[in-house]
Design brief:
about 120 residues; Arc Repressor Mutant, subunit A
Length: about 120
């Protein structure tokens, strides 16, 4: 049980080797926290819809995203602010229009394999 932190070393275990494997699988707590925050962003149906639209179509403007998702423009803008702050999307200006696109490859892979596979 070499991976058990000192503050938990005195706890009783049933399968000590599996506890060490579980600790190794969990890995760095900061990495786990970062993924939990990403999944929290995906947990909102509106934000998830925006990400799916961007993943499938590429860059879209706020008004186009609003039409595609059935959301109102202000709600789309607010959701995009959160997604942009988290580094999942970025906006590219073309004159007065800003088109948003998905830039997080890990989230793109989750969308492709985890969400899009359940449309059937």
């Amino acid at each position: 049980m070499h991976l058990v932190p000192a503050d938990r070393a005195d706890h009783r275990t049933i399968d000590g080797h599996r506890v060490c494997e579980a600790i190794a699988a969990i890995g760095d707590t900061e990495h786990v926290r970062a993924w939990a925050e990403r999944f929290a962003l995906l947990a909102d149906p509106g934000r998830l819809s925006l990400l799916l639209a961007l993943h499938e179509t590429g860059p879209l403007a706020v008004t186009d995203l609003a039409v595609a998702t059935g959301m109102r423009d202000p709600a789309v803008s607010q959701a995009l602010r959160l997604l942009r702050a988290a580094g999942l999307v970025t906006g590219e200006r073309d004159g007065r229009i800003i088109r948003y696109r998905l830039v997080d490859p890990a989230i793109a892979e989750v969308l492709a394999h985890g969400v899009l596979g359940y449309r059937d």
